[in-house]
Amino acid sequence: MTGFVVRRLIQVLLALLGVSIIVFALIHLVPGDPVRVALGTRFDQEIYDRLVQRAGLDKPLLEQYFSWLSNALTGDLGVSFRSGRPVTAVVLERLPATITLAFGALFVALVISIPVGIVSAVRSGSKLDYVATAASQVGVSVPDFWAGIMYILLFALTLSWLPPSGYVSFAESPWEWVRHLVLPAVTVGLISGSILTRFVRSAVLEALNQDYVRTARAKGLPESRIIRKHVLPNAWIPIVTVIGLQLGFLLGGVVVVEVIFAWPGLGRLALIAVQDRDFTVLQGAVLYIAFMFLMINLVVDLLYAYLDPRVKYE
Amino acid sequence: MSAPDRPLDLHDAGTPPVEHQSRLREVLGTLVQNRLSVLGLVILAVLIVLALFGEAIAPFELNDIDVVNRLQGPSGDHWFGTDDLGRDVFSRVIIAARVSLQVGFIAVGIALAAGVPIGLVAGFYGRGVDSVLMRLMDILFSFPAVLLAIAILAVLGPGLRNAMIAIGIVYTPIFARITRGSVLSVKQEVYVRAARSLGASDARILRRHILPNVLAPIIVQTSLSLAFAILAEAALSFLGLGVQPPEPAWGRMLADGRRFFQDAPWMAIFPGLGILFTVMAFNFVGDGLRDALDPKQKSVIESRGQTT
Fold first, then answer.
1. Is the CB of residue B296 less than 8 Å away from at least one CB of chain A?
2. Which of A202, A265, B119, B138 could cross-link to A98 by cystine, CB 3.0-4.6 Å?
3. What are the backbone dihedrals phi and psi of residue A172, each rounded to the nearest 5 degrees, phi first?
4. Contact B308 A253 (CB under 8 A)
5. In which domain, by residue range, is A144 found?
6. What would the pLDDT profile of B97-120 be if each residue is shown by its tens digit?
7. Cβ separation of A137 and B239 shorter than 8 Å?
8. Hey, are the CB atoms on A289 and B143 less than 8 Å from each other?
């Protein structure tokens, strides 16, 4: 177990190093001079010189990388080519919205997938199972941005039940916070829920086919008790893993939904940075998202090893 | 050892008896028993016809501008209504099928061409080669798919060709991982050891003995990846990073439709349905193929849960 944790930590550190190289390279792979491209028609020699110097772009490449990396480790990701503000501040102010949407969507996904997945597995082969399976197949095929637009059309513009877009912080107004969260969370959560439903179903099905379930049945335990005491406690370990992976995806993979709902999250920040050719901000957003993604995967793996002592890691 | 395709080559002595004809029939037999897969195949057949003959089938030209009749609702003349320039949405949705399929096939082709050899080499040689290659794949896996594609397009610049390259790079690691996993189990098989003891070269063993036996999961993943690639292209085009006007693309049309969607919701509804049906068709076929080829492999949705 300790060996596994150490190996996994080393792996994550290597991946982070690789991520940092890719993110660093972003700015250098852009054809032409990134600062000149970013400034475009607003070119001004003085601003140009200051940005180049601040980003260290006038130094040798290797030296640039190491100073960029050591600055990044202390939380300094440089300044935005556009606004001149520190990238770290720009990124951090986007985090609450991204985290809110990720957990909101996960909540929707769990509320759907856990009951549907369990019932589907317990009554596997039934009509209900068939319908649930087909529905989840359709669910994963829905383009999230299209679904989002349809919900806005129906629930915001036609029925006027909910606001069509925007984000209100919890501190400002808890009620408005919830109302603004519903549509984007449902948009992403339904798709995520379709994925999770299948996992819950197969995990429960797997647990149902174990010998201890047969024994419990032979003892004459009522089915509901078997499910509660024998099946679910064993099914939830793989489910937790997938939930973790989904959360990692939700924290960085919902760029288009953020755009549709004018949601001030990290994904939309990354896109705006691409459009503005604001490469330092793009680096910051991508770095933070990849970092969260790797950390969540690490936590999930460690949790899995902790929860399931049978898991052997060579 | 000289002529690689000589009949009765001794090196083939250990080749497992794969009867292609009957195997194919068996797979197709299982596939057509799955009602959803049949539906998927029918939708795909229609899409391929549209991709090939879209212009001939479409009642209007792609860029037939008719400003007098702009933003008209669905009618007998314009089944899916008209857009902000009076162009026929039905014709544009039909013609856009080609771009979607093209991006899907080429992007997944790139991912296959890069990922499968990486997986073969990593799995076959193991040790240092395996560690280096798979750690590199892990790095690509550390980014959510759409974000990585956006970052690549930030460097390459927007456009159809670059979108295909970006999507291809994003889906390379999944093919490398799947291939490697299968190679690890296949390389222990008796026929591989037999071929080696007969003096076959590594390249020959990989090509003739290992590759044919790891194809099943790769074929399944190809179908699923086509679905994801088409979704990704639609998302990128929606964001203005993929297909550029005047070329029609569903994602792009959706983005245009969004500006008018209170007055002309059909502009956004129908291109979205195009994406939905195409992606669904590949998912249905992929799931059916999995059942037929490789029952142990995880379902579409399960594999997506791990790759997104």
1. no
2. A265
3. -70, -50
4. yes
5. 101-265
6. 898 999 999 999 999 999 999 999
7. no
8. yes
Name which of A81, A149, A282 to mutate to probe chain B: the one with the most chain B Cβ atoms within 10 A of its Cβ: A149
Distance from CA of A37 to the nearest CA of B (A): 12
- Specify if A298 maps to a domain: no
The residue in chain A having the minimum alpha-carbon distance to the alpha carbon of residue B234 is A143
Which tens digit of pLDDT belongs to each residue from A65-121? 888 888 888 888 888 888 889 999 999 999 999 999 999 999 999 999 999 999 999
User: How close, in Å, is residue B59 to chain A by CA atoms?
Assistant: 26
Residue A208 domain-assigned (yes or no): yes
| A290 to B150: CB separation less than 8 angstroms, yes or no | no
A274 inside domain: no
Please state, rounded to an integer, the average pLDDT across all residues of chain B.
82
Which of A19, A37, A145 should one mutate to test binding to chain B, selecting the residue with the greatest count of B CBs within 10 A? A145
What are the structural domains, with CATH classification, of chain B?
Answer: 42-50+96-242+269-303 (1.10.3720.10)
Q: Does the pLDDT of residue B51 top 90, yes or no? A: no
How far, in Å, are A88, B62, B262 from residue B68 at the CA level?
Answer: 51, 17, 19
Number of domains in chain A: 1
CB interface of B with A, residues 245-264, below 8 Å = 251, 254, 258, 261-262
Under DSSP, is residue A9 helix (H, G, I), strand (E, B) or coil?
helix
Return the pLDDT at B280. Answer: 92
Q: Which residues of B137-170 are buried (b: 16+ CB within 10 A; e: fewer)?
A: bbbbbbbbbbbbbbbbbbbbebebebbbbbbbbb
Structural domain includes residue A13: no
Q: What is the CATH number of the domain that holds A139?
A: 1.10.3720.10
ipTM computed for the complex: 0.85
> What is the C-alpha R_g of chain B?
23
User: A176-225 pLDDT, tens per residue?
Assistant: 999 999 999 999 999 999 989 988 998 898 888 888 888 888 888 888 88
- At B33, which amino acid appears? Q
